[in-house]
């Protein structure tokens, strides 16, 4: 066999399997998040403040240019620093406030400590889109964590991190919850498995929680024009995409799906739907 052909085949196999293997890799933000929490045990106040900022930047909705303490990041469950039991509750707080609470509990009050963390698995899924760009990728990482509260109570727990573009968009103690982010991750998993009908219905469930969720609207528009999970219908697809464009004109700064620049993508998709016979 020609040496050039052999090299080509080996290179192709490397790309294919390398891409497959990277799907099991832990996103870098996971280590950044937990090592920053661990670092809050420092006695240096300035370093503790920097680590608090690092934790804030691990979440979607916090940018390097943002200096306002009022900018909240995303809403997450907090059953760690609120002195309630370890079971998941429905209370959420802004991620910036959560980072501040962590600093107070670990660095100042010294009644909380991260003992250990171990990333167990990372599942990557892709959402329906016009072209294959990685920013439409979702990741869910399972992490086994042990905290120590009040220097006596060891709290082992499993944390599930939803991650987009190396930013945390959710942290829960359950793999699946009935909230827009969890449903979106589940929809992406189903779509990646080519279970289009189930994925389509899951995106529609997102809209029952938040009718203005432009990510779900965009994905439904793309699936509808392609006839994935539903009957192909150009006019319905256009209505979904039109809603994305309309809603995106409002100020949605800090929203987790802002990372995908959905307004531009919806405008591109609307053009194709309007001017081309098929995508």
Tally of strands: 6
Rg, nearest Å? 21 Å
SSE series: HHHEEHEEEEHHHHH
The largest sheet, given as strand count, sense and whether it forms a barrel, is: 4 strands, antiparallel
Supply the number of structural domains.
2
What level of helicity do the residues show? 40-55%
Examine the secondary-structure arrangement and name the CATH architecture of the largest domain: Roll
CATH class of the largest domain: Alpha Beta
Number of helices: 9
Shape: elongated
Q: List segments where confidence is low: pLDDT < 50 over at least 5 consecutive residues.
A: 6-23, 85-89
Strand content: 15-25%
Q: What is the average per-residue confidence, as pLDDT, rounded to a whole number? A: 82
Q: Can you tell me the CATH topology of the largest domain?
A: Nuclear Transport Factor 2, Chain: A
| Sheet with the most strands: spatial strand order | 3-4-5-6
How far the N terminus sits from the C terminus, by CA atoms, comes to 39 Å
Structural class: alpha+beta
